[in-house]
Amino acid sequence: MAVVALLGLITPGTLDGNAAPFPLNVLEQIAFNTLVVLLFVLVLMHFVAHGGRRRARRGAREDTAGDRPYPGLDAFQENEAAVYFGREEETAQVVHRLLRPAAEPAERFVAVVGASGSGKSSLIRAGVLPRVRAGRWTVPPPVVPGDDPFAALASSLAPALGEAPDPVARRLRGGAEEFAATLARYRRASGPWAGRVLLVVDQLEETVTRGRERDREYFLECVAEALRRDRKLHVLAALRAEFLSDMRRADRTGLFAQPVLLTELQRARLFDVVKRPADAAGFRFAPGLVDRIVADTRRGDAVPLLVHLLRELHSRARERDYADLRDYAALGGVGGAAVRQADLAAARLREAVGTRDVLRTLLLFAGDTAGGAGAADGADARTVAARSLDRRQRRVVDAFVSARLLVSDSGGGEATVRVAHDALVHAWAPLRQEIAAHRERRRVRAELEHRRAEWERGGRGLDRLLTGERLRLAQEWLPRLREAGEATPELAAFVGASQRRDEEIRRRMAEGIRRFAERAAESRADSPVLLPLAALSGFPLRPAERRALVTVLALHHARFALGRRGEAVRSLAWSPDGRLIATATRDGAARVWDAETGALKRALGEEGGAASRVLWTPDPARLIVASQDGALRLWNVETGEPTPLRAEAAGVVHRAPWTPRGDRLAEVPRRRGLHLGGPPAAGRLPTRLRDTPTTPEEWRNRLMVRGAQHRRPRHPAATTPHHRAAAPPSSPERPRAAV
Question: Compositional bias (Basic residues) at which positions (predicted)?
């Protein structure tokens, strides 16, 4: 009939001015009316058919909405589009990117990037895919890469190709050209009316966390080549934000140049997340309950926990289709959902990691409000750099990210982890008890982290490093923080830089004080004495610096100097009456000085001699000088005349105490033995008593002798009236000598 009507319209009424044949006149008269009727019928049939499909889809969605308006912690699926709300703007943005003409192949690759738990998978599956399918797009099942992205893609394409997944996977791995050819074959196998193909890759970060870098680069290379060869191919991928830099390093074709960033859901949209799915399912909330739920959610990071709570609330009040404050309170609110999830996550980790490591890891996320408005116990949630976590800590964090209790994101260009809801820190009893037990450590760590952050923000300036008491506190606590696994590399670097700076300051100050002290010693000035005192009490000094400062302190109290500056004194002795000072210097000379004026009284011997020790007799006019060759000489200080006391070389004298009456000399060579000398005036030679190593000690009216190998004096020998000492019997274990 349509053909007849069209022929009637296009056939001219006359060919050469004569009347048309009768059949053609009839056809021309009825053609227009027939065509109008046909068009009306076709339009009516289209609307009837399309309305039937819409009613079928609406019925399916209503069944889904009534059965499960809230999916819980799982992502929204395509058949749950009727209850998916809150991301309308982002959904429209992604659909627009897919539909707009693309000048470059990379523009047909759309990456949805956001933090963990931000709703990337839900946006793609429940937001974008239902709209795309309505436009004759062919969409294979979404791909999750796992360990092998090629095998995962093959499993998605194989049913339409009529093949087993393994041969399809081998062809996909066969090179970029074979990869593109396989996708083109899939499009043709989808039917003669198949339009554009949308390849969905969910959780693309698994090519980083579970796959090898070489496979990741090869997979992206193959995708880019397929996009270049097939203008009807589009790719939509979901990626966690902290892995965007990894993908960009592996991508050489600019696939990730213009991602769609999925930010935290704003508070105003949380009302849609709570109320609109309930309206679609015919479920009602008590007045004020929606406001209470949104207020308790606090921020968009906790949307997975919020939807999980709403699912529990719907299940509890489903028979009544009405939830009130008592139902909400019985579940503990959003915080209660977080606590139950934490219990489940900790139970799963208990055997693999242990409760202690779980709590120590989560303690990293409990900071300190430092006097701010925080929880009652002072704890507040903090963000942790992912690179500061070791392998065991990473395992705990991944488990709590999967439980939607922690959020992994990319802040400032680096991967970070933060708490999804403060209830994990404030309400979960095991972690709360751990926080209370380590409150002081948390406070110190928070203070150090605050100082470190200021140092970083200030460009790591020297003026922002720790000094004084703060540095001492950091040095004390850093080993404890390391032991607890809470000392991040950044914190350790900050404390180390502070310590090095402090040591440098101290070194420069000590060096300056040393030089100042040397100049003060030359000028004999009194004013700088406080500087050496401060240096000795507050700075670690090297031996040369300490000697210089001690010299200044000594000179500050000195009345005069004996001899030349820099001349080493080997031995010094005061005369019995305190009027004279005898010295033996390194030049080998012995000298006698006036103790009152410091004037040289007498030079005994010549420079270049062998004087090593000076010993006054009880008579202040007589002085014994011991030489390096072991000889002893008795000098008359008034006349300068020497008298030899010993001819044999028994060794350098180590010590030579006198008997109380002054008529005997117990002279001890450095090598060994004990020699008893007669009255000085008689010039009697010493008598060797023993060769055992000994060290005589003077103690009141007795001469105490001890063996050289003993640390304490032993075997005191009582002095007789004639000053002959009586000693107890000797033994091989305790050799001794007596006078």
Answer: 708-725
Q: Residue 72 pLDDT more than 80?
A: yes
pLDDT > 60? residue 94:
yes
- Residue where a domain terminates, one of 280, 304, 331: 331
Domain boundary (692, 714, 731) is at 692
d(CA 111, CA 4): 54
Looking at the domain assignment, is residue 76 inside a domain? no
Report the pLDDT value the prediction gives residue 681, as an integer from 0 to 100: 46
Range of the domain at 276: 267-331
State the maximum Cα–Cα separation within the chain, in Å, rounded to a whole number: 182
What 291-298 contacts at long range (C-beta under 8 Å, 24+ apart), as own/partner pairs, is 292/325, 292/328, 293/328, 293/333, 293/334, 294/267, 294/270, 296/333, 296/334, 296/335, 297/270, 297/334, 297/421, 298/334, 298/421, 298/422
Cα 731 to Cα 77, 675, 693: the distances in Å are: 99, 20, 14
* Token code pair at residue 711: 């640390």
Mean pLDDT of 271-276: 94
Same domain, 600 and 552: no
DSSP H helices, 463-566, are: 468-483, 489-523, 530-538, 543-557
pLDDT of residue 632: 79
Instruction: Give the CA angle between residues 198, 199, 202 to the nearest 5°.
Output: 125
Residue 610 sits in the same domain as residue 625: yes
- Residue 226 binned pLDDT confidence (cut-offs 50, 70, 90): very high
Q: Which CATH number is 622's domain given?
A: 2.130.10.10
Query: What is the model's pLDDT at position 224?
Result: 94
First to last CA, the chain: 153
Q: The tokens of 72 are what?
A: 């819980």
Mean pLDDT, range 549-573, rounded to an integer? 70
Question: Given a cut of 60, is residue 682 above it in pLDDT?
Answer: no
CA 571, CA 612: separation in Å to the nearest integer? Answer: 7
Check whether residue 238 and residue 302 sit in a common domain.
no
- How many degrees, rounded to 5, is the angle at CA 739 between CA 699 and CA 692? 100
Asked, for residue 350, whether it belongs to a domain, the answer is: no
Domain count, the chain: 5
This prediction's pTM: 0.56
> Is 323 found in the same domain as 179?
no
SS (H, E, C) 357-384: HHHHHHHHHECCCCCCCCCCCCCCECCE
Strand partners, 622: 636
Q: Give the pLDDT of residue 93.
A: 96
Instruction: Report whether 521 contacts 551 (CB < 8 A).
Output: yes
**293 and 247 share a domain?**
no
Q: Residue 491 — pLDDT band, cuts 50, 70, 90? A: confident
- Regarding whether 257 and 118 lie in a shared domain, the answer is yes
